[in-house]
Amino acid sequence: MECIVFLLFLLTLTSAQPGNQVDNTEYDLQDQKLTKRVSCDCKGKSGTYWFGISKCHDPNSLQCSAILGVCCVPPERS
Fold it and tell me: Where in the cell is it found (predicted)?
């Protein structure tokens, strides 16, 4: 129970950070998960934060680990 409360706290904390804008919600057919995309910074570049996945969809993307997800910068921006 304490673990669930802690995870909910982390989710609330990350979603309340200034500058994070929800772009859209999409259902990833490969992972069978509902994912939310928000803006993030990865090594000084602007990218997209994907909740609930551990690797970027495009293997050529610049990738940074984030809390419960990953920040991906497309190759054209990196």
Answer: Secreted
